[in-house]
Amino acid sequence: MNEFDRRTAIKWVLAASAALRLPGVAFDASAAATAAKGYGKDPDLLKKYAAGDLWPLTLTKEQRVTATALCDLIIPEDSQSPAASKVGVVDFIDEWISAPYPEHAADRKIVLDGLSAIESEAQRRFKLSFAQLSATQMSAIADAVVTEPYFIRYRALTAGGFYTTPIGTRDLKFVGNVATATFEGPTPEVLRKLGLA
Amino acid sequence: MAMIQTSQLQKEYDVIVVGSGAAGGQTAYTLTMDGAKVLMLEAGRNYVPETETPMFQTPDQAPLRGTSTPDKEFGFYDSTIDGGWAMPGEPYSSASPQEEQRFWWWRARMLGGRTNHWGRISLRNGPYDFKPHTRDGLGFDWPLGYDDVAPYYDKVEMLIGVYGDNDGMENTPNSSPGCLLPPPKPRAGEMLIRKHAKTLGVPVIAAHRAVLTQQLDHKRLPPLLHPGNERAQKILAEHMRSRAACFWATDCGRGCSIKATYQSTTVHLPPAMMTGNLDILTQAMVREVELDNRGLASGVVFIDKTSGKEHRAKARIVVLAASACESVRILLNSKSTKFPHGLANSSGKVGKYLMDTVGSPLNGQIPALENLPPHNEDGAGGIHVYSPWWLYKEAAKLGFARGYHIEMGSGRRMPSVGSMEGMSDFAGGYGRKFKEDMRRYYGSFIGLAGRGEMIPNENSYCEIDPGGKDQWGIPTLRFHWQWSEHETRQAAHMQKTFADIIDAMGGKVLGKPELDGRKAIAPGGYIIHEIGGAIMGTDPKKSVVNQWLQSWDVKNLFITDGAPFPSNADKNPTLTIMALAWRSADYMLASMKRREL
Questions:
Q1: CA distance B437 to B435
Q2: Residue B251: how many CA atoms within 13 Å on its side-chain side?
Q3: Closest partner residue to A164 among B52, B375, B420, by Cβ?
Q4: What is the pTM for the complete model shown?
């Protein structure tokens, strides 16, 4: 069932997982058969969890420096919100690649290999570590690797980490998850813009 | 009577109900409200939505930001606990090594079963859906018709609370006046889909979902549901007052602590408990049904999972409502001299004609939905609109039998890792431009998912695995699965239709439509509409139960879950399971009053 790999599954949930009740996991028989040593089938859903609470983290101090620079290259500070690393995205990526599930083991390899590839590239081009590069130098490298699978994956994780924080959801102007007395549907302004008024 | 321990079991009950979901909940509700003494056995733990539901929790508070894992397949905050397609200690197997012949069996070992997690989509089968063989020569007719079930659809809708409209469309029945709650207004994306789908002849109407858009009328409804039974009316009125209307936030799949949606745990079980006629024993894994020397069911044997010890419970009537395949498993594991091939299986049909729903999705990005002014689109935590099957008149031209409905998603929903990963891949690039693009594209995606009818076939069934046992030593199931061309062609038709809709909206299909139906169709069991395995009929040689869901072989044995469905219409099965369970329970009550059971 290779059509139904994880990437496809994620695309399925892209629009509205809440509405369609689609799972985000692969139809991978071997993954399902492997008893994952994660948080188990009955975790406490009301507790607040932080990276490192459930399984040991992976990144070394040096790797974290590179990871931080790369996150902030992808999502830098602008007038509306801070850079990715300022809201814990590096911790999130570390938690993600350290998780004891098969898909996360795959991402662990991609991310660690990617961090070391980008370091090598910085050394090769500028004889500096990636985090020490100027904005122009970083962009030169980013332009060269922007279609590399590891960069695409790292960008996806950075976005996943950033936009699921309160600051990230505000950046997108998500205004839900609050109790209201009534549901009025789209505003007149929205309807006008869509030509539905 | 209450939540009990094994040591507190009564000597004998009127009825044992195995399972606590839609079927078990409805069966126990109907029986106890009318005075029968019922023992409900649930294989999972007790579960209390009022205190356990993560209502407003945000992704940053969860491990991995709440993303799906093999432990929680629908995400960390999904209500399902001790469940999923793969569960430690509870294996099942596939007879074929081929992936496309594999059946994915979802279980939810918890009080309320999968009603805690379900999509709340509550569609009635139409008149055609009860007589499919008569219409096209395929599959089986039901031994009853729409008119037999309609009064029970009315009752269930009034009891659980379902929003929707009466649109009077072909084979998409109206409810009786006063049954439905008003539907929520469509979201922006849903309205845009409706506008453009119409140009293709695809209707988009209000969805029917078990969510309270307003509080239930606790004065008007109880006398209609329990005429002449003042105590039941009083209990139900009190319970209806305790259920709040939807507050238009949070995903229903997390469960609902304010009881605004239907879950067995918040709707069926509390009033049943208030009657004093219901004992619930959790962590009780039923292994088999036992017979007395007259050949009648005398009760069940179960494993108390807290001690690992075997126990017995006795009753005048045994009801299996454990989910289609689990009920089948219990029957096949109940072997005796009289029933060497499993209980109630003189027909040899137990386990046969297993069905799921045909599923296939396609997503699109719609430029018209970009950069919309921020507004709250959470709504009723699920779909507000859907498309009922619209091509009944074209059946001969399609190349496949039966049809499907379309469920659709859109909107500015709470960002998740999965949706942001997808949006990141779509946006591309990096830096400030990337941030701007993410703002632009957020809320501009739609998802279309087909849900279609599968024709029962001889190659899709389950049986006891000769080599398999679970952690309690109970023999496990082995599955055989095969889609026919009716299903795979239908999946291809879904893909084509969805691509046309996205195209008509001026959008871009994400990926490309998969026109090879064998690749487009989701695996068996993936849609979690497990149906069949103990089908009802008019001939004891060709079916397992009669129209009252009563075993032909053992007259005090009933199966009230999806196992007796002889066909699986595109309509999601839960509402029909409840309607038939209520009807069956009424029959049990009448039979007990006449001392026939």
A1: 5
A2: 28
A3: B420
A4: 0.96
